[in-house]
């Protein structure tokens, strides 16, 4: 599902309602026919959210951030895997550099490493995942999204870039109303 | 789940160590306030002994307010809080661990300094032991109740003043019982009743505050 719309149309708000961070004024979000507010824990085990705020602490390094994230989300991990994923994302040698010393794109790549580490989540909710990434980074992420879709996963995302994934997508156009 | 909680605890301790200059601020404030008092009101030992327990407690409350915002502010700003809320680990347990880590890193140093400061204010030994026990029971209460208000004011840009306004009235009973305990100790009277009341307040907040904090954090995301 690809959500389009001008700035202020409510794309991010919609995604935040879908994650359960914000409760909707009307209606409910159902996951496997259960209201996500009621079955929050089951839903969150299946969910991977990537928002505007990266969720990467700037005083810690990439490795510490990802170790914490994995432990927090119950993802089995060892350092070798994290090193491997960071290498894939072009962050070799930067694993133990404090995140505040990395560039904006590199910081995003640290956060994006979650998509390679967390393989159990079926629902991906991505808010502008391509911002600040270079061409190579976009290609990497595109491939990962397609691989996830082919495994039967579901992706809901917003993007201002034209979407270039080799997979049938649904589009939802939001309008800006005052 | 215990792995997740351990990870939160270790991360917060590591962060506190990296940002130790930030932790120094409330501590310096605490020392400065207490060392200025004898200069301000004169070095008469009896006067100092009389105001001492109150001064130490007021300084402890104010300096804990100074460091309180650290508890969730960074995590809120960089999105870590969102990620924590979207994990399967129950939020009340996570916040309880965070409050514990915060107490250990920003309040326990104050307790360690307290013998020196008690000396500045000419407290007798029984008074000091009473003071230390009220601080040990009372300061976790400050952190737990404070965290609720921090959660509520997260969305505000300059929430610090509002935080103080919200919290100070709540801390007044604690201040009264704590200073009454030290007062009783100075007269060689038993003070277990005051300690028991502070202990009861601590237990209630230990049971209820994590849920209130978790709820406040969820509200802050709206």
TrEMBL record, chain A:
Instruction: Provide the GO MF annotations for this entry.
Output: ATP binding; ATP hydrolysis activity; transmembrane transporter activity
- Cross-referenced InterPro entries: ABC_transporter-like_ATP-bd, ABC_transporter-like_CS, ABC_transptr_haem_export_CcmA, P-loop_NTPase
One Gene Ontology biological process: cytochrome complex assembly
Keywords, A to Z? ATP-binding, Cytochrome c-type biogenesis, Membrane, Nucleotide-binding, Translocase, Transport
Pfam families this protein is in? ABC_tran (PF00005)
Superkingdom per UniProt: Bacteria
Q: What is this protein called?
A: Heme exporter protein A
Which organism does this sequence originate in? Answer: Paraglaciecola chathamensis S18K6
Encoding gene, per UniProt annotation: ccmA
TrEMBL record, chain B:
Q: Where in the cell is it found?
A: Cell inner membrane
Q: Which UniProt keywords apply?
A: Cell inner membrane, Cell membrane, Cytochrome c-type biogenesis, Membrane, Transmembrane, Transmembrane helix, Transport
Gene Ontology CC terms, in alphabetical order: plasma membrane
Record's keyword annotation contains Nucleotide-binding: no
Q: InterPro entries, per this entry?
A: Cyt_c_biogenesis_CcmB (IPR003544), Cyt_c_CcmB_bac (IPR026031)
Enumerate the transmembrane spans: 23-42, 93-121, 127-154, 161-182, 194-217
The membrane-topology field of this record reads: Multi-pass membrane protein
Reading the lineage from the top rank, the first entry is Bacteria
Query: Which family does the record claim for this protein?
Result: Belongs to the CcmB/CycW/HelB family.
What function does the entry list? Answer: Required for the export of heme to the periplasm for the biogenesis of c-type cytochromes.
Q: What is the official name of this protein in its record?
A: Heme exporter protein B
> What species was this sequence derived from?
Paraglaciecola chathamensis
